[in-house]
Amino acid sequence: MSDVETTLRGPEAYKIAGRALSLMERHQVWPTALNFELWTHFVADPDGALARELTRLISLGEPLTESLSEELAATYLPKAKLNEQIRDAGDLLSKELESVSKAIQDAQKSNTAYGRTLNGAAKELDASQDVDKIKTVVSGLAEATRRVQKENKSLETRLAESTAEVDRLREHLEQVRRDATTDGLTNLANRKAFDEELDRACSEADEAGATLCLAVLDIDHFKGFNDTWGHQTGDQVIRYVASVIGRVAAPPRFAARYGGEEFAMIFPRESAALVAGTLEEIRVEVSSRMLKRRSTNEDLGAITISSGFAERRPGESGHSVMERADAALYTSKRGGRNRVTAAETKPDSANAA
């Protein structure tokens, strides 16, 4: 999830939406779903590429038409860019397969014609004892054979080229898929990928009768840190915590940036004791390092994280176990932060401030 999308899911979102609607009205832009998404991104990230481009177009007096909105979305909105990439790759793949299909059809026609030539030659040889005529038939057969061999060679080359191209397109689509499920700031999985993996892991645990633990981790006092040092330094801290989490998240474990400064981890087939130990390892490593601001080398001090985890009950939904892990996280927050808490059987649903 991008920082803009995280902002649009926070308390500032309503103010941003109101300002976006005001700007749309001022510039006589219809409040369609696409335009609203563009302008909320404009307000939420005024220094971003989309905002700069919209500002440039407005300064030039360009009419903000629906077609222009679609072009801006395809260029600057993550989901629209992804759809465009998938569509382009799909079009190329369709063209490649169509070309191969035509080459195969041409080869089939050539082989059919060659078969007719062989049949005709056989009949002529059976009916004739004339040496010159036999030589003519054999010569024709040789020519037809050379022609079909050449066409078959051409087909083999075309199929080899096509195989390479399809492999390239498959690799491109896989990269697009990875981009769609990867958080751009941390290179961990994003929330969409996490939700899908949690559903899959729950189903697998039910089928195998296996254990599954889910953990939620959150950087303590991050808003104050961000307000003091700025978003770029805040991003540096998020990347650092993500790197610590990533080092202990080798498969079958699964780690994701769940949103903002919050992370989530799935621990298939691991006991609560082992999960608690791993989360404690992460907590200690994060808090043990004194951070410096990259741009000025100023001391930022140490940061801490709080976490909560829940062991999934048989048949329990991913949403339910997530709620229990969240409740355990809030218990860590209420208890003074910088700690690991296991979910209770009947968790307290109250939230920490």
Please tell me how large the radius of gyration is.
31 Å
Average pLDDT taken over every residue: 79
Quaternary organisation of the protein chains: single chain
> Helix count, per DSSP?
12
Low-confidence stretches: 347-353
Q: Rough shape?
A: extended
Q: How many β-strand stretches?
A: 7
Strand content: 5-15%
Major sheet characteristics = 5 strands, mixed
Span of the ends, CA to CA: 23 Å
**Spatial order of strands in the largest sheet:** 2-3-1-6-7
EC number: 2.7.7.65
Keywords: Coiled coil
Catalytic activity: 2 GTP = 3',3'-c-di-GMP + 2 diphosphate
Protein name: diguanylate cyclase
List keywords for this structure.
353 residues; alpha+beta; two-stranded antiparallel ribbon; 12 helices; extended; Diguanylate_Cyclase
Summed up:
It is built from 12 helices and 7 strands.
Description:
The C terminus is likely disordered. The protein is extended and about 110 Å long. The protein has twelve helices and seven strands. Strand 6, helix 12 and strand 7 form a beta-alpha-beta unit. It is of the alpha+beta class. The two termini are 23 Å apart. Helix 3 crosses helix 4 and helix 9 packs across helix 10. The strands form two sheets. It has a five-stranded mixed β-sheet with strand order 2-3-1-6-7, sandwiched between helices. The protein has a two-stranded antiparallel ribbon with strand order 4-5.
Protein topology:
Elements: H1 3-7, H2 13-26, H3 33-44, H4 49-59, H5 66-76, H6 78-127, H7 131-180, H8 191-208, E1 212-219, H9 222-229, H10 231-247, E2 254-259, E3 262-268, H11 272-288, E4 291-292, E5 299-301, E6 305-311, H12 318-334, E7 340-342
Parallel strand pairs: 6-7
Antiparallel strand pairs: 1-3, 1-6, 2-3, 4-5
Helix pairs in contact: 2-3, 3-4, 5-6, 6-7, 9-10
